[in-house]
Amino acid sequence: MPLTADEDIAELLQSARTIAMVGASDRPDRPSYRVMKFLQNQGYRVIPVNPQITGEHVHGEYVWRDLSQIGEPIDIVDIFRRPQAAGEAVDEAIAVGAKAVWMQLGVINEEAAQRAEAAGMKVVMDRCPAIEIPRLGLKPVGEPA
After folding, report:
1. Whole-prediction pTM value?
2. Buried b (16+ CB within 10 A) or exposed e, 96-114
3. Do 116 and 92 touch, CB atoms closer than 8 A?
4. What does the pLDDT average to over 129-139?
């Protein structure tokens, strides 16, 4: 089952340092653009993934085609894709050994969540870290609690 308890979500966010954002956008009107900047301001390293803008930069970070290209440990894969497309991102997250997948608001894919959990990953679904961090009163990464 996806994480729903506040303490479990807070623990995941406090233990994470690197977030890969699948579906990151270079367009300021897109939620993923704003959420990426918010997470960077909270002290996370956010690595954008979007095959349509591979090689460009968003908020100072190189945009990768897919998770397998990143080549460094990923704590959370934050998925900004339609629910039907989230399964592919989850399968990539499993393949690269990410610790958790986070499906954004409105992104609900039970089958993908079950695959991730079966692979030993934590799963958050239908939530946004940019909402959860202030709601839970979390301090920026690296600051004393």
Report:
1. 0.95
2. bebbbbbbbeebebeebbe
3. no
4. 95
